[in-house]
TrEMBL record, chain A:
<dbReference type="InterPro" id="IPR000515">
    <property type="entry name" value="MetI-like"/>
</dbReference>
<dbReference type="GO" id="GO:0005886">
    <property type="term" value="C:plasma membrane"/>
</dbReference>
<protein>
    <submittedName>
        <fullName>Carbohydrate ABC transporter membrane protein 1 (CUT1 family)</fullName>
    </submittedName>
</protein>
<keyword id="KW-0812">Transmembrane</keyword>
<dbReference type="Pfam" id="PF00528">
    <property type="entry name" value="BPD_transp_1"/>
</dbReference>
<keyword id="KW-1133">Transmembrane helix</keyword>
<feature type="transmembrane region" description="Helical">
    <location>
        <begin position="70"/>
        <end position="92"/>
    </location>
</feature>
<keyword id="KW-0472">Membrane</keyword>
<keyword id="KW-1003">Cell membrane</keyword>
TrEMBL record, chain B:
<dbReference type="Pfam" id="PF01547">
    <property type="entry name" value="SBP_bac_1"/>
</dbReference>
<comment type="function">
    <text>Part of a binding-protein-dependent transport system for a sugar.</text>
</comment>
<feature type="signal peptide">
    <location>
        <begin position="1"/>
        <end position="22"/>
    </location>
</feature>
<protein>
    <recommendedName>
        <fullName>Probable sugar-binding periplasmic protein</fullName>
    </recommendedName>
</protein>
<dbReference type="InterPro" id="IPR006059">
    <property type="entry name" value="SBP"/>
</dbReference>
<dbReference type="InterPro" id="IPR050490">
    <property type="entry name" value="Bact_solute-bd_prot1"/>
</dbReference>
<comment type="similarity">
    <text>Belongs to the bacterial solute-binding protein 1 family.</text>
</comment>
<keyword id="KW-0813">Transport</keyword>
<keyword id="KW-0732">Signal</keyword>
Length: 290, 416
């Protein structure tokens, strides 16, 4: 008996959470997939009706805007946050005296919720309250900075706020990575008289590849599920110019009573996540098997 | 021994009283989203009256999202087989819920109290599902109001506009004088509110009915609709550059403070004026938006099928009280709307409410009493949402009116 318990203890302990994950994650993904193939409106219905919801989704200019916005927001957010984070990390890595304090300052935005970030930036970017009004108050009467209310530029204000929030976190990740590079190699390079920028570009950064991958995965899932930032910052406006798939899904499910549309847009979002995560999982599993 | 007999007797008496109590005792669990100051006060009136008639009221207020959160809570309750006794639902959503087979029949109360003759015909139709009564109306908000700062109009020699051309002329004049002509908040539902008043004003009630209620494809792509979008484009020039995302009450405050001259908004805006101590006719002027007709937004309670005599009795009592003349008068005076029943004495109401009631009666006779599409009275959520998407996309970009009309007919077809 004891023997049996010993052998099976890990399975017994893991079983409840395994069952919970199966039901509440994969079970509900399956449920959503099913509902996305029906004509559900106010309440879920279960008679299948082929791909009607996906056809409607394809015909919806609003969902198209949401997907384009996701592409713009995702790309810019991930690239800028990573570049800025790396730059900050390298600058902090120069053995400066107040590193602890500075690191904390840059990391702090991460402690705020996206709602707070969004609301603060909404005020900063508001032409009548924030930067534009301030600079005008200094006497530059022609100064204009109205991205927040300009429907072509509004999505970039979302990028701005998101980068401000997350680049400190990316900096911390990269700083840990920089510190983990073997000191001996760097010293050897310095003895050979190789300039610092070459040390970074040829030795340190390439050896940090796994950190880049982790940072990318973290930022990518932040970008795809972005919802609260948009709600707080622009409310999806002007018009629906800053809609993202998550806000589209919310509007369909909870304000419009169109559960079928909501389910199908959720499935599309999940596919986007898969296309990013699956190659990552694949490469992870492959290195383990080697 | 004596005391034993006495206590037994009293225990039996208590039990008997309890049983009698359970049988005829009206109880109601009411799900609503009236949670802000004035609204909460209004709903408390109903609560008190319900208690005064011997009922037990279980309040279930759900704040947030203009009723979205309440809708979500309601769906969860109904799906789990535990529907509330009554819930605040309006417009075609009542029929949508009826189609799910979860609404109760309150025809006995409605017929006993002659609702059919007390309500304007088109509003009565919203309260009926397949020939039976399934909901009780609380109030009538008029949507097609234009509010103005009286002082600014007088200073610039402007009369309240009665056609959209007059409105445009007045706006040009105000703009030249350095005043923002139209206070507007760039949120989709506010864009839709302005749009529907323009459609009603330019096309008339018949066109409004064809386009925004029956969704007739010909009406949606007609020249009248193009003209409506043209007018929206013109009006885009009359709002200040910072209008995006502004809440409606901030826009109202702009009119109050004299920053802007006009606002197009339903009569809940009146509450803002009155709360700031402004007097109708002196500090601000109310008038219907240019053109004939009346757009209504009616709040109502739908009754759900529930088990138990107490709850059924509660529903009947609730329905009766909601349509009762005292509640309709007190509630609507608090809320800024007008009673749904037409026989209430309006002498205690303000000037704007009296205009609203008189217009409701006359448009009801003339057949131009129309449901507001922007406030969920005319269409299912998916359809009105699709129209609003186009309206707000057009208003916030440089899309041409022809493009907008094409997009509109596609979006409507796609939403069916």
């Amino acid at each position: 008996m004891t023997r049996w318990l010993q052998d099976n203890m890990p399975k017994i302990v893991l079983a409840p959470s395994f069952i919970a994950v199966m039901v509440f994650v994969y079970g509900f993904i399956g449920w959503t997939a099913w509902v996305s193939l029906t004509r559900s409106r106010l309440m879920p219905r279960y008679e299948l009706d082929s791909f009607i919801q996906y056809e409607r989704l394809a015909d919806s200019p609003r969902f198209e805007t949401a997907m384009v916005n996701l592409a713009i927001f995702g790309t810019l957010f991930i690239v800028i946050a990573m570049v800025l984070g790396l730059l900050l990390a390298i600058l902090l890595d120069q053995k400066i005296r107040t590193e602890g304090a500075i690191r904390t300052i840059y990391l702090y935005p991460m402690a705020l919720s996206m709602i707070v970030t969004g609301t603060a930036w909404k005020w900063i970017l508001n032409p009548e309250l924030g930067i534009e009004a301030t600079v005008k108050g200094w006497g530059f009467a022609n100064f204009e900075f109205n991205w927040l209310v300009d429907q072509d530029m509004a999505i970039y204000t979302v990028v701005l706020a998101a980068v401000w929030q997350s680049s400190g976190f990316v900096m911390a990740l990269f700083l840990a990575g920089l510190r983990s590079v073997d000191e001996e190699i760097i010293k050897a390079a310095q003895v050979d008289g190789i300039p610092t920028w070459r040390v970074y570009s040829a030795i340190i950064i390439p050896s940090m590849a796994p950190i880049f991958l982790s940072a990318f995965i973290v930022l990518a899932h932040l970008a795809i599920k972005a919802f609260d930032l948009v709600i707080a910052l622009t409310g999806g406006g002007p018009g629906y110019a800053t809609d993202l798939p998550a806000t589209y899904m919310y509007a369909m499910a909870f304000s419009r009573g169109d559960i079928g549309q909501a389910a199908s847009s959720a499935m599309v979002m999940m596919l986007v996540v898969f296309t990013i995560v699956v190659p990552y999982l694949y490469s992870e599993l492959r290195t383990k098997n080697d | 021994m004596k005391s034993y007999v006495l206590s037994t007797a009293s225990a039996i008496a208590v039990c008997a009283a309890g049983a009698a109590f359970a049988e005829g005792h009206a109880e109601a669990e009411v799900l609503h989203y009236w949670t802000s100051g004035g609204e909460a006060k209004s709903v408390a009136v109903l609560q008190e009256e319900f208690a005064a008639n011997g009922g037990t009221w279980t309040d279930m207020p759900v704040a947030g999202g203009g009723g979205d959160a309440a809708g979500t809570a309601l769906r969860a309750r109904v799906l789990s087989g535990n529907a509330p006794t009554a819930a605040q639902i309006k417009g075609p959503a009542i029929q949508e819920w009826f189609a799910e087979g979860v609404l109760a029949d309150i025809s006995s109360v409605a017929e006993a109290n002659d609702w059919a003759n007390l309500l304007p015909a088109s509003i009565a139709a919203h309260m009926q599902c397949d020939g039976t009564w399934c909901a009780a109306p609380v109030n009538v908000h008029r949507v097609d109001w234009i509010w103005a700062n009286t002082e600014i109009l007088a200073a610039n020699g402007i009369e309240m506009p009665t056609t959209w051309d007059e409105f445009n002329a007045a706006a040009e004049k105000l703009q030249a004088a350095g005043i923002i002509p139209l206070a507007h908040g760039g949120q989709a539902w506010q864009d839709a509110t302005v749009f529907e008043t323009v459609v009603l004003g330019l096309g008339g009630a018949e066109f409004y009915q064809a386009a925004l209620v029956d969704l007739d494809p010909e009406a949606l792509t007609s020249d009248t609709m193009i003209a409506a979008f043209d007018q929206m484009r013109t009006m885009r020039g009359y709002v200040d550059p910072n209008f995006s995302g502004r809440d409606w009450n901030l826009a109202t405050a702009m009119v109050m403070n004299g920053e802007a001259a006009f606002q197009i908004m339903g009569d809940w805006a009146k509450g803002e004026f009155l709360a700031a101590g402004k007097v109708p006719g002196v500090d601000f002027t109310c008038a219907s938006t240019p053109g004939d007709g009346y757009l209504y937004n009616v709040d109502s309670f739908a009754m759900f099928s529930v088990e138990g005599d107490g709850k059924a009795a509660g529903q009947e009592l609730l329905a009766e009280l909601i349509m009762g003349p005292t509640f309709q008068e007190v509630f609507n005076m608090n809320k800024g709307s007008i009673p749904a029943r037409t026989d209430v004495d309006l002498s205690g109401f303000d000037e704007c409410a009296q205009i609203s009631a008189a217009d409701m009666a006359s448009t009801n006779e003339g057949g131009t009493l129309m449901p507001s599409y922007a406030h969920g009275m005319a269409l299912f959520g998916a359809q009105s949402g699709a129209i609003t998407d186009v309206v707000t996309a057009h208003f916030n970009s440089d899309m041409s009116s022809e493009e907008a009309v094409q997009m509109l007919s596609q979006a409507v077809a796609n939403s069916q």
